[in-house]
Amino acid sequence: TGVGADGVVLLRRRAEEPSQVAIWNSDGSSALMCGNALRCVALVLARHSGPEARPVRIGPRVVQTRLLASGSAVAMGPVGRVGALPEY
Fold first, then answer.
1. 41: three-class secondary structure by DSSP
2. Distance between CA 73 and CA 36 in Å, rounded?
């Protein structure tokens, strides 16, 4: 509700892998996954450490990021069970 941000991403690069990522939604709650944010993280890691695939820890999960000719990709794994969606 201020600068128009959708959320905040914190990346902690580590000498040993995996690097760690924390994501907060615009309402201040913690996000367990965000594909767009992780693709941005993949680009940052590639710029600093080279284009090879890198594991990233987000919460309890470790996902694989990699640089592509057209951008970046994240292997986030299978979709888990999704609960009921809120009604608006």
1. helix
2. 9
Q: What is the pLDDT of residues 14-65, one digit of tens each?
A: 777 788 999 998 888 898 888 888 888 888 888 888 888 888 898 888 888 8
Q: Model pTM?
A: 0.74
**Distance (Å, rounded) from C-alpha 85 to C-alpha 58?**
23
C-alpha closest to that of 45 among 60, 65, 22? 65
Residue 53 tokens, joined: 């695939």
Alpha helices in 12-69 (DSSP H): 35-49
Q: What is d(CA 58, CA 23) in angstroms, rounded to the nearest whole number?
A: 8
